[in-house]
Amino acid sequence: MEEIQGRVRIKDIAEQAGVSVGTVDRVLHGRPNVSEKSRKKVEEVLKQIDYKPNMYASALASNKRYRFLCLLPQHKPGEYWSEVEQGMMKAQSVYNDFNIKIEIFYYDPFDLTTFTSSSQEMMKNSPDGIIINPCSKEVTSLFTEELQEKEIPFIFIDSTIPELHPLAFCAQHPTQSGYFAARILHMADPTSEIGIFRQAVAGLIGSNQQRDREAGFIRYLHKHYPKTIIHKLELPNKKFGRQFDLMDDFFNSHPNMHVGICFNSKVFGIGEYLEKRGIKQFHLLGYEHLDRNKECLRNGSVEFLIAQHPWKQGFDCTKMLIDYLILKKDIKRENYVPIELLTAENIDFYSRTY
Predict the structure, then answer these.
(1) Which residue, of 65, 86, 182, 215, has the greatest Cβ tally within 10 A?
(2) Residue 14 CA to its chain's centroid (Å)
């Protein structure tokens, strides 16, 4: 006979309640065909023994299928968001017994109308839970208001907008990350001029995380080194040939600038430029251990990388939906991933998993 808690068995509960074993089983699993009188008898015994349901076993027994939908920025294979997806798929594999299906939708971070059209398409698929990389508050709120109205839990990944009240979020703390980057670069070369390389289109930065890191970086410099001169270069999101022309003009215009930073995962674009132009003694910091970034780190054109843990974020966000929806666990709302510094000396020993 099934043991449900310590040494208490379904048979024991049935005897105490004066009902059949089948009746107890139906009450425990929320099945129909139980009279109100019998249900109350069983519930009274469960209350007396302080019964706590085994949600893991119940979830396995239910055979319910769960659909988790994700809304992420468009990207190419091997880029930052590819590792986020790999983390999600790993979680789906690990928790395969719970009948989870993950589907991913995309939007163009430089055309926010695509966020709206993709979110509308997602709602046609009857999701049980949603994972979102939010864009602007105004656009994202239109989606999250609908989710709240329909009581569909949603989690933010890579950045958050607290006022929209997600169930939880998983991200690197952007302000602290920006502070950290500023300290590292200033220690590497206490120069009076620093370059910021921005992936943007007409001034629009396609990521809340990048925008907030930059704000934290500049705030730190203004507070501790107010005489620092900051030069900004806006690089188009595509057309790397055009980027090289822009960087030629930028470096020629600022010959005393020997320090630079890129706040997203495409620092390889600047690193490869430095290699091609033979520019040495330039301290460059970027984010994430993508293959091209790691190659620049080994070659010396990028001096530092800060890990963003995309794989971990993808895995953890998926697991949080599982814990909340299936295992009925309480969820920690704020989930910040570590801020870790990678160099040529430790990059080969760094693991994306945990």
Answers:
(1) 182
(2) 47
> DSSP character for 212?
H
Task: Please name the helix (run of DSSP H) or strand (run of DSSP E) that holds residue 139, with its range, or none.
Answer: helix 137-149
Contact 341, 302 (CB under 8 A): no
Q: Considering only CA atoms, which of 256, 255, 264 is closest in space to residue 189?
A: 256
With CA atoms as reference, report the closest residue to 152 among 34, 71, 56: 71
Please say whether the beta carbons of 131 and 84 come within 8 A. Answer: no
**What distance in Å separates the CA atoms of residue 268 and residue 126, rounded to the nearest whole number?**
40
Stated length of the chain? 354
Name every residue whose Cβ is closer than 8 Å to that of residue 258 and which is 6 or more positions away in sequence: 189, 191, 193, 281, 282, 283
Neighbours of 157 (CB within 10 A): 28
Query: Following CA atoms 131, 137, 143, 147 in sequence, which dihedral angle do they give, to the nearest 10 degrees?
Result: 70
83: enclosing H helix or E strand: helix 80-94
Q: Tell me, what amino acid is at 347?
A: I
- Does residue 350 have a pLDDT over 90? no
3-state SS class at 303: coil
Sign of the C-alpha dihedral, residues 310, 312, 313, 314? positive
If you search the block for the tokens 């129909």, which residue do you land on? 32
Note the pLDDT of residue 2.
46
User: How far is residue 274's CA from residue 271's CA, in Å, rounded to a whole number?
Assistant: 5
Give the list of residues 6+ apart from residue 43 with CB closer than 8 angstroms, or none.
27
Residues 113, 272: Cα–Cα separation, whole Å = 33
pLDDT of residue 84: 96
Task: Tell me the sheet residues that pair with 169.
Answer: 156, 334
Mean pLDDT computed over 178-196: 92
Question: What does the DSSP assignment read for 52-71?
Answer: ---HHHHHHHH---EEEEEE
SS3 (DSSP) at 313: helix
At residue 310, the 3 state secondary structure works out as helix
In the DSSP assignment, the letter for residue 337 is P
Q: Amino acid identity, residue 219?
A: R
pTM of the model: 0.82
Contact of 264 with 306, CB cutoff 8 Å: no
Strand partners, 195: 231, 260
